[in-house]
Fold each of these.
Amino acid sequence: MGLQDLPDVVAAHRQHFPNGFFARLGPRFLRRYYRTFLDGPLAVALIVEVSGVPSGYLVGVLDPVQHRRLLLTYHGVALAACGLFGLMRRPTVLTRFVLTRARRYLTALRRSRDRVIESVDGPRIAVLSNVVVAEHARGLGLGTLLVDAFLAQARDVGRDRACLVTVAGPDGAGSFYTKSGWQHTRDATGADGQRLSHFERDLSEMV
């Protein structure tokens, strides 16, 4: 994925996740959000094309803790400015942010002040953040192609497991991930009250 792909990616995000918090902040915030995946050494940003037409994308991170530190260091001010701009233009979204996310985001900012890289015991986990395949290109295996490429990169850099979250029930992609070898670990209620399904994949099983 490159800068030239961001308009298509933002449009696809707004089409497929219209009720998500990031989409409600508007296209300006989404463009800045997806830019954070383009230059991060611990991020993955992929585009798939059919006959030269962008038909799907995937973004994820190979080390969530370190990626978050780098994101806040190099993109934090710009991302916060775009987010604040979106909130000021949308009072209902601002209210929702204060009620559901403000404390968590402030905690993350405070932690970012500690630039010491800490070793963490336990499995090293990669996170698949978003994957979308355009409706006209479904059934061609593009989703599997994107996810497999992400998992291969995660395995190559020494990740033990990968995880993701999707909407629970028929509106989500749980059946796709189950068929692809992911393990459903739990359901939980997200910040916006939506039921979410959590999945994991053991990368040691990949050949």
Amino acid sequence: MTIVNLSKQHPELYQDVVALNKNADQALIRAGLDPLLGELVKIRVSQLNGCAFCLRMHVRDATARGETADRLAVVAAWWESQYFTEQEQAALALAEDVTRLPVPEPRGWDNGSLNEEQVSAISWLAIVMNTWNRLAIRSHYPVAP
């Protein structure tokens, strides 16, 4: 199988994704959500997609923003811990819904802690993160110690 670095093959498309990412991050802030919550969403989406490159990047980014090792250790099983606020739980569940595209059913994330603007911002952030994961995985971005 031929491995192609998609960002180098079509750099203009890569720059479009960079711009989309920037806009999604700004929408999160305009919606009144903490950028650290955005990092948690990016981590969870990357866990679901199995993207080592993005996981390493966003765990480092979250740590730089003050996230604790304990909370990072349990993001993959956030629903079983008491580390996350109601709003963080809603955002993580929503990001999972966006990533997995489930058959419509009652929304477990819809606990009233996110307003419409925040639901939109988290949804866009998860969509963008799914794009980055697919780009990194398909391009086989290196992840070495």
